[in-house]
């Protein structure tokens, strides 16, 4: 075997080891999140106290905003922007940025309502669109060919939103690397009015209460990082987290051990 081929194998083994350790670590983080959800009982909104809480309520309150891709009325949006990378196997989608924003909104049940600031949460939301488009080259990330229809049938161009979103996350210098004809994909997830959500986060004092029933605010905590907003039921999200943790821990561990064993055996260090 040539030295170049041997070096490439070592590089791939090192990458596999790194990926295995990363997913092994992520698995334990997911398992911790699962345990937090298991140990945090769901309470009526009227009974929330300061600290980590779990509530189930219907999104309501402030006037909704139009989502950036489909113009769907929503309280919060998350848009993943990817581009197509060509490789020897044909190509794959590679993540560029995630744009997430929206106003504070309320979730309400039969006992009351509580304000939610959804920024910096982990989102498991309804997908409303997955749209592909193509770059137009220098100065703009997307061409006018990438278009969608709003709820009233209004046509609008995705170029302005997409280019601004990437510029905010990547910096304006990113545009010098785009080229005409490149493929991009936008996947949109939303918090929509009148839908029910499970929210696990930290309850703090609302700095701008509207009345005596508006004194609480759910946010991402400083000491407790768990902040999850999901449209799934409590039982379903627990099953999902448990399964994801097991896959990452065992899959990542096996990948790391296999890559390390091959590397040691290749260099004669495995006895």
Report on the architecture of this protein.
With 271 residues, the chain is an alpha+beta fold. It is 30% helix and 34% strand. The protein has helices at 3-39, 159-170, 234-266, and strands at residues 51-60, 65-66, 73-74, 76-85, 92-101, 105-109, 112-116, 122-124, 126-136, 147-149, 155-157, 180-191, 196-205, 216-219, 228-230. The strands form 4 sheets. Strands 1-6-7-14-13 form a 5-stranded mixed β-barrel. The protein has a 4-stranded antiparallel beta sheet with strand order 5-4-12-9, with helices on one face. The chain has a two-stranded antiparallel sheet with strand order 2-3. A hairpin with a 5-residue loop joins strand 10 and strand 11.
Sequence-ordered SSE layout with sheet pairings:
Elements (H helix, E strand, L loop, with lengths): L2 H37 L11 E10 L4 E2 L6 E2 L1 E10 L6 E10 L3 E5 L2 E5 L5 E3 L1 E11 L10 E3 L5 E3 L1 H12 L9 E12 L4 E10 L10 E4 L8 E3 L3 H33 L5
């Amino acid at each position: 075997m040539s030295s170049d081929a041997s070096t490439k194998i070592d590089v791939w083994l090192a990458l596999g080891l790194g990926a295995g350790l990363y997913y092994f670590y992520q698995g334990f983080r997911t398992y911790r999140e699962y345990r937090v959800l298991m140990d945090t009982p769901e309470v009526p909104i009227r009974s929330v106290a300061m600290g980590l809480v779990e509530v189930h309520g219907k999104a309501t309150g402030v006037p909704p905003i139009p989502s950036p891709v489909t113009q769907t009325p929503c309280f919060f949006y998350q848009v993943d922007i990817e581009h197509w990378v060509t490789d020897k196997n044909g190509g794959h989608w590679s993540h560029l940025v995630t744009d997430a924003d929206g106003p504070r909104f309320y979730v309400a049940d039969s006992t009351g309502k509580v304000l939610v600031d959804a920024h910096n949460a982990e989102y498991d939301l309804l997908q409303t669109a997955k749209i592909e488009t193509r770059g137009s080259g220098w100065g703009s990330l997307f061409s006018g060919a990438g278009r969608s229809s709003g709820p009233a049938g209004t046509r609008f161009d995705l170029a302005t939103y997409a280019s601004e979103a990437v510029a905010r996350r990547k910096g304006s210098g990113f545009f010098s690397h785009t080229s005409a004809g490149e493929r991009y994909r936008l996947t949109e997830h939303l918090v929509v009015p009148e839908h029910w959500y499970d929210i696990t986060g930290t309850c703090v004092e609302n700095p701008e209460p509207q009345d005596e029933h508006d004194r609480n605010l759910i946010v991402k905590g400083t000491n407790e990082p768990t902040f999850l907003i999901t449209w799934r039921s409590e039982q379903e999200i627990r099953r999902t987290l448990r399964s994801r943790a097991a896959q990452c821990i065992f899959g990542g561990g096996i990948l790391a051990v296999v890559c390390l064993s091959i590397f040691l055996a290749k260099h004669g260090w495995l006895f």
